[in-house]
Design brief:
Number of domains: 1
Radius of gyration: 14 Å
Keywords: Membrane, Transmembrane, Transmembrane helix
Largest sheet: 2 strands, antiparallel
Protein name: DUF2905 domain-containing protein
Helix content: 55-70%
Strand order of the largest sheet: 1-2
InterPro entries: DUF2905
Structural class: alpha+beta
Transmembrane segments: 43-61
Distance between the termini: 27 Å
Pfam families: DUF2905
Order of helices and strands: HEEH
Number of helices: 2
Length: 64
Amino acid sequence: MLRWLLVVFLALMLISWLQPFLAKLGFGKLPGDLRFRLFGREWFVPLTSTIVLSALVSLISKIL
């Protein structure tokens, strides 16, 4: 259980560090990525970008 929490925490940190680079590539602006304001705060739900990145990582892992 602790291992999974550590992996999720590290993955979230990595994604937050890579987010500016991924935004330059167009991730986060795909159709299906949701941005909305709620309670004075901007929320971002990258549904399509998550699916595309997951498929890319899966493809790379199958090749290697």
